Structure to design on (115 residues):
């Protein structure tokens, strides 16, 4: 992988981290007191969705931070399963990926090894 490609991926990771962090900051997790039980139930349901979204954002922030750390190390761009290089196009599409396409497909298909 060239220095230009690494720089491009790093920029993408930083932008993604910034965007997700800003979204996480703007989420409000409060339930207002409602005289109507239906409104209260609706608010509780919405809060459940908001909590799930916030959790997913937290996981994504961790993924992006981990990818940025790996980027500065020699293991970035190497599949954690088979040790082969992960394609540059795949890294550009998902810079936090840790598996090559073959290993990712094998895991999704319930196989122990890629073909």
């Amino acid at each position: 992988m060239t220095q230009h490609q690494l720089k491009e991926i790093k920029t993408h990771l930083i932008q993604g981290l910034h965007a997700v962090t800003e979204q996480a900051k703007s989420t409000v997790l409060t339930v207002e007191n409602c005289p109507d039980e239906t409104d209260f139930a609706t608010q509780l349901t919405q809060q459940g969705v908001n909590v799930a979204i916030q959790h997913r954002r937290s996981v994504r922030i961790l993924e992006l931070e981990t990818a940025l750390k790996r980027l500065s190390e020699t293991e970035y761009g190497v599949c954690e399963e088979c040790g082969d290089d992960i394609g540059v196009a795949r890294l550009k599409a998902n810079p936090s990926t840790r598996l090559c396409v073959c290993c990712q497909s094998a895991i999704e298909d319930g196989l122990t090894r890629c073909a």
Notes: The helical segments are 3-26, 37-71, 88-93, 101-108. The chain has a mean pLDDT of 86. Residues 37-71 form the longest helix (35 residues). The two ends are 24 Å apart (CA to CA).
